[in-house]
């Protein structure tokens, strides 16, 4: 049974930074693809970033500002978010794709506001 637990969300001013963490348990973490998605109020969930092996992929809206990474020894994925904008406000979800199955965390709120 895969469990994903996000942390690191909060309230930050525009231009600020946050780092989200996603701790995984019960999984063969090193071969899993990891991703971050977000959902703003009234909008559909959207892809933010993914990491598969050594390859990363980003939504155009976060390129150059966000960085996804992983530590296989700690079974943890990260999302470093810099130069945050009010439009980045959303619930951020961690995703793991393993053996063609998707697993989700409970989400962590990120609010960018002055």
Mean of residue pLDDT values: 95
What separation lies between the terminal Cα atoms? 40 Å
The low-confidence parts are none
Range of helix content = under 10%
The total of beta strands comes to 11
Shape: globular
Strand content: over 45%
Cα Rg: 13 Å
- SS class: mainly beta
Q: Main beta sheet, described?
A: 7 strands, mixed
Structure write-up:
- With 114 residues, this protein is an all-beta fold.
- The protein is built from no helices and 11 strands.
- It has strands at residues 3-7, 10-12, 18-25, 33-39, 46-52, 55-58, 66-71, 76-81, 90-98, 101-104, 108-112.
- The strands form 2 sheets. Strands 2, 4, 5, 6, 9, 10 and 11 form a 7-stranded mixed beta sheet that branches.
Offer a quick outline of the entry:
With 114 residues, this protein is an all-beta fold. The protein contains no helices and eleven strands.
Question: Main attributes?
Answer:
mainly beta, 11 strands, 4-stranded antiparallel β-sheet, 7-stranded mixed β-sheet, 114 residues
Task: Give the arrangement of secondary structure elements.
Blueprint: E1 3-7, E2 10-12, E3 18-25, E4 33-39, E5 46-52, E6 55-58, E7 66-71, E8 76-81, E9 90-98, E10 101-104, E11 108-112
Parallel strand pairs: 2-11
Antiparallel strand pairs: 1-3, 3-8, 4-5, 4-9, 5-6, 7-8, 9-10, 9-11
């Amino acid at each position: 049974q895969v469990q994903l637990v996000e942390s690191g969300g909060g309230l930050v001013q525009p231009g600020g930074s946050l780092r989200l963490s996603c701790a995984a348990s019960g999984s063969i973490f090193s071969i899993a693809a990891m991703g971050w998605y977000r959902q703003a109020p009234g909008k559909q969930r959207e892809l933010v970033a993914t990491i598969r092996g050594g390859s990363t992929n980003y939504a155009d809206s976060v390129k150059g500002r966000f960085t996804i990474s992983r530590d296989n020894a700690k079974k943890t994925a990260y999302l470093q978010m810099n130069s945050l904008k009010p439009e980045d406000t959303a619930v951020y979800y961690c995703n793991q794709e393993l053996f063609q199955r998707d697993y989700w965390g409970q989400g962590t709120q990120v609010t960018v506001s002055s």
